[in-house]
Write a structure and sequence with these properties.
alpha+beta; 10-stranded mixed beta sheet; 4-stranded antiparallel beta sheet; 14 helices; globular
Length: 526
């Protein structure tokens, strides 16, 4: 793969703004020099792992996204099974799983496992946790909706599936299925009312600021070497880069692609880049009148120059895909299906046919209304949004880009105040469950509320198909069909980039890095 980089690399910042940023960062990073030329804050302890990211868990309830991801990432919570860096599902909180017949699995739990409170992790406790996640979390629901769980003993669960040969361990490896104590006294409104199983416990939590974790001495597994974790939120991408370059943290997540070349051999940290099985997606609000017409949605897709998007928005550190499954290695055949090139002529023709006529001001109008588009971005995707703004202007669409945190996007979806938003969903896992989440009428990832009789029929057929080859072919058919209908548009796999301090040993690169930063082998050299 050829990686390209913008000539200038970074945006120009006004002098006054730059001075302000540097002043703030000076206070944040503690830039008072000692005799060695290093700040005191840059001398890291081997007793505390310091982690920074774009955001931290917004609460301690695993059913409210994205709390489960971050609790799993810090090893405060656990799922029954977990995928390793090679993509193999391994037992985690569960001890083992056995498939007894086409519809039945037996899951054996670890008798020694306990919640933080000391309560045993029994079969009934696990089932109660899975049921709570299913009922309260739309992201968790597709992974357990077709499985019936019953206790077969104190530490044995029987799982019966609606369809044959469903890969139950893979479904239960989803991060939204974090096992938690559902005893009524644990309401998950705050730290005092949360009870998990992880090897670290939450000691302090300040929303949108920091979380502190301490080692769980009663954990069932091998104890971690590092007794304490500090996880801080650093929302500004430039501030995260400066924090990593200063050596203030052992791990800084969500490093923007544009900053990779700033990490040199003499930097205190180095970059770890892993291609993620996640598709960078522009979700469209198909409830908006202008976007109800598939020709308008297709026009936006044909007007996208994905090579330019990756170059300008991601420093060239990815490759184009045009279907949602395109980021999954097993579905390379549909990586560039349908939208095989940028075609401005075709995009303009579609908009003309849909009744949106170009005016002398360079924008399109229909019945006196301008074709306007509000695109919301978060994390490191602002440059992608601005590049799309430029590309869609070429076909007469007036695009406004609003950048903020993820909470702003979720609020906008509830109120309907959006036309499009950029987000990446993981494509690794049970294909049926994942495609249902994206395209079923009530799917957790069907943000725009798109409904289509044909896709409902195809998903139902996929649900009933047991032959693996036939299932794969049907999934590919769904991917291509949905690219044609364009309720969402696809850009590329999202690379996961972290800055890791050179003193940290045992860090494991993972295509699900967002839930695999901390492990019990980590050590800090002093």
């Amino acid at each position: 793969m050829l990686f390209l980089r913008r000539k200038n690399g970074r945006k120009i910042i006004g002098k006054l703004v730059l001075v302000g940023v540097l002043a703030i960062m000076g206070n944040l990073l503690g830039c008072k020099s000692n005799d060695s030329g290093k700040s005191k804050e840059q001398v890291l302890s081997d007793k505390e792992l310091r982690v920074a990211g774009n955001e931290i868990a917004i609460g301690v309830d695993p059913t409210i996204y994205p709390a489960a991801d971050y609790l799993l990432n810090m090893c405060a919570g656990e799922v029954l099974f977990k995928v390793d860096p090679k993509g193999v599902i391994r037992p985690y909180l569960a001890k083992e799983a056995k498939q007894l017949d086409d519809y039945t699995w037996q899951i054996n739990l670890r008798p020694e496992a306990k919640f933080w409170s000391g309560d045993p992790v029994t079969a009934q406790a696990v089932i109660n946790s899975l049921h709570r996640s299913q009922q309260l979390d739309l992201k968790a629901n597709p992974h357990v909706a077709d499985i019936t769980f019953t206790p077969e003993g104190t530490y044995v669960i029987k799982a019966v599936t609606k369809t044959p040969n469903l890969d139950v361990p893979m479904n239960l490896s989803n991060s939204q299925l974090l096992i938690h104590n559902t005893n009524p006294k644990y309401t998950y409104k705050d730290v005092a009312t949360a009870d998990y199983t992880g090897m670290y416990k939450i000691a302090e939590f300040k929303p949108a600021e920091r979380m502190i974790f301490i080692r769980n001495e009663n954990h069932w597994g091998e104890k971690p070497h590092i007794p304490k974790i500090l996880h801080e939120q650093v929302s500004d991408s430039d501030a995260r880069v400066m924090a990593a370059l200063s050596g203030r943290y052992h791990v800084v997540m969500d490093i923007p692609q544009t900053a990779c070349n700033r990490f040199t051999k003499t930097s205190p940290s180095h970059v770890v880049l892993v291609p993620g099985a996640q598709t960078q997606t522009i979700y469209l609000n198909s409830q908006k009148p202008s976007l109800q017409d598939y020709r308008v949605r297709q026009a936006l897709g044909w007007a996208m120059d994905r090579d330019e998007l990756i170059l300008m928005g991601m420093e060239g550190k990815s490759e184009p895909v045009t279907t949602w499954l395109g980021s999954h290695p097993a579905f390379a055949s549909v990586k560039k299906a349908f939208f095989d090139q940028c075609d401005i002529k075709k995009a303009n023709k579609l908009l003309d046919e849909a009744g949106w006529k170009m005016s002398s001001d360079g924008y399109r109008y229909k019945d006196g209304k301008k074709l306007q588009f509000l695109l919301r971005t978060f994390r490191n995707d602002q440059a992608l949004g601005e590049t799309l703004q430029m590309q869609w202007k070429r076909i007469g669409v007036d695009v406004a880009v609003q950048h903020g945190d993820y909470g702003v996007i979720t609020t906008a979806r509830k109120t309907g105040d959006w036309d499009g938003s950029i987000e990446a969903w993981g494509t690794y896992g049970n294909i049926t469950s994942l495609l249902k989440a994206q395209y079923a009428p009530n799917g957790a990832g069907n943000y725009g509320g798109y409904k289509d009789v044909k896709i409902s029929e195809l998903l139902e057929e996929l649900d009933k198909t047991t032959d693996r080859k036939a299932k794969k072919q049907l999934a590919e058919k769904i991917a291509v069909y949905m690219a044609e209908q364009s309720p969402a548009l696809y850009i590329c796999p999202r690379p996961q980039i972290s800055a890791v301090h050179n003193s940290l040993e045992g860090f494991v690169p993972h295509f699900r890095q967002y839930e695999n930063v901390v492990n019990n082998k980590l050590r800090i050299k002093v």
